[in-house]
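Researcher: Structure prediction, please.
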Amino acid sequence: MPNKQWHPVFVTALKEALSDARPGEIEIQAEVALSSKPLDVDVIVVKKKETARLRHPVANIFRQYNLFEYKSPQDYLESNDYDKGLALALLYKVLEHPDMNTLDRLTLTFVSSRYPRDMLKMLTSRGLTVLKNVPVSGFYRVAGERIPVQIMVLKHLPDAEQAYMFSVFLSGKEKLKLKANLLLIRKYLEEPGNKHIQEIIEFTMKNELVTLNEMEVMFKMDNYISAEEKKKIEELLTNHPFTRRMLEKRAAIVELEAMEKGIEKGIEKGRAEGIRSLICKFLETRYGVASLQLQETIQKITDADVLDEIAGKLFVASSLEEMRKIIK
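Model: Predicted structure follows.
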């Protein structure tokens, strides 16, 4: 799925992450036109007032204007993405706030589902210091840059409380993804009026980002979910069109596999019958009625490979007795 299709859900996830802000304390500007020509990167700006105290660790670095660059789960933060992000931040300052004399009101956050090894290695080679786990695990703070920069690696976030809103960006079958999805569904049930969570749930279901196997694993996490909550979640998923589609797919796959096995068995059975007929005709032609007992033995063999091996030795046997030894 192209990065642009992830854009709306990332904006929604960011809004949910910063939802503890009081009215008027933050403003999220999803897109900023920095050029008459479309730029090959997405810009999300969070404008924050000094009075805002935000709970999510992503906001720990925030100043007045906070720019974001993110990657979809299929994409990877490369070394050049860092320079692109810095260039955009500076361009944003020049075009949107030309009277800003210093850069101390800007920050830049890179968001990636996976660990950006090449980018971090490049930063070290430039002599920049990368502070790990600042303010918590999953965050890498870049010291010595012109503006404060951080990298948020979603799969390394401390727990589901910080990750549930970004669950659609978590790939693989990591425990964090399962817990994040479970917490997302719990919050969906507990906060039916939360439009952010509703949009994330719908995106997850529509794009089939949770498999039936993952749902089954989620339900087995007894320490994380009560019987009452489990019942509510099961009802939610049972009634959702997405779940029905997955069940229909699974049923179709099982049916197809059964048909394939039936065809294979039919082919194998026909092959065995053909070889049995060939061997019996040979025995009858060469040895006559004296071979009737051996023919009965051949009719009891169902393994086509065994029959094929016997058929390959028919012309090697010089007598009926030798033929008996081969068949045994």
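Model: Residues 241-287 form the longest helix (47 residues).
Researcher: Thanks, that helps.
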